Amino acid sequence: MNKWENNRAWLLTIPVLIIVAFSAIIPLMTVVNYSVQDIFGPGQRIFVGTEMFRSVLHDYRLRDALWRQFLFSGLVLLIEMPLGVLIALAMPKKGWSVSLALVVLALPLLIPWNTIGTIWMIFTRPDIGLFGATINNVLGIPFDHTASPIDAWITLMLMEVWHWTPLVALLAYAGLRAIPDVYYQAAKIDGASPWATFRYIQLPKMRGVLTIALLLRFMDSFLIYAEPFVLTGGGPGNSTTFLSIYLVKLAVGQFDLGTAAAFSLIYFLIVEVLCFLFYQALQNVGKGANP
User: Fold this and answer.
1) Neighbouring C-beta atoms of residue 59, cutoff 10 Å
2) 136 to each of 23, 119, 126, 143, 231, how far by Cα in Å?
3) pTM above the 0.70 mark?
4) How far apart are alpha carbons 35 and 44 in whole angstroms?
5) For residue 126, is the peptide bond before it cis, meaning its omega torsion is within 30 degrees of 0?
6) Terminus-to-terminus CA distance in the chain, angstroms?
7) Which of 48, 60, 208, 242 is the most buried (most CB within 10 A)?
8) Domains of the chain: which residue ranges?
9) Which residues are registered as beta bridge partners of 45?
10) Is the pLDDT higher at 6 or at 30?
């Protein structure tokens, strides 16, 4: 009887499971259904089996978008993870300045994604943008993210780092605040340097939150759509056409629903496999670091 009473709370999860089924499982099965059919219009479709998957895997535009996506996500992680930790280490530990720092740091996270793209599109315009006009007119450096692929990538990276580094910093700061003072006292007694304190106390204790931060940032950067679409539209040319933008062009621009559905399933599997590998690697590193 007591066991039933303890497990009765699981019944409260039934509404959540129903909502998840309608919002995730059913749309996913619909995509699977589309991926094995060639759709010409309402009521006009032909079963083609795995033909759509084969065509997607042999699409050179997909391979190019995939490599651009890997490059973008890799640069994002290489910049945001160390920078977020450094910001967390530099943040105040007590007093009114803690609340001020947290509020200021969280402001970019409150702005909608499409608004972020609009803000940076205006900010970096070479004619009226504060950043773009300063670079072009004051410093004399030609900069135009609508004409130069390198400038487009620089703008995208600046925008992404500004928008999401605060998330890494907030998670790292939470991990730092959870470390008991006794560890710092022991390090001080042993005469440990700041680097040794960070290497053997702070970094291992932040492993959990940094794992969460890395997975969140990888998934979000690998699925990014709104910001680059608003800022560059995938251009100039195809230089910033990432996987998500290419998928939308297939589904909406070309109305190739079968190919887009197969592509989205492959896209989903790539994200799932990479997140699993990241998680396992970080867990193994953490176990190896613990005596």
Assistant:
1) 16
2) 47, 19, 6, 6, 19
3) yes
4) 15
5) no
6) 43
7) 242
8) 60-242
9) 39
10) 30
pLDDT band, residue 6 (cuts 50/70/90): low
Query: Among 42-46, 223-227, 228-232, 266-270, which is the least confidently predicted range?
Result: 42-46
Question: Which helix or strand (DSSP H or E) is residue 38 part of?
Answer: strand 37-41
The amino acid at residue 240 is T
Q: Which residues contact 98 (CB under 8 A, 6 or more apart)?
A: 91, 92
CATH superfamily of the domain spanning 60-242: MetI-like (1.10.3720.10)
Closest to 143 measured CA to CA, from 158, 161, 165: 158
Q: Specify the DSSP element, H or E, that contains 46.
A: strand 44-47
> Residues 198-209: pLDDT tens digits?
988 899 888 888
Q: What pLDDT shows up at residue 162?
A: 94
pLDDT of 291 reads 42
CA distance 231 to 117: 5
pLDDT band at 151 (very low <50, low <70, confident <90, very high): very high
The pair of three-digit structure tokens given for residue 206, joined into one six-digit string: 């932040």
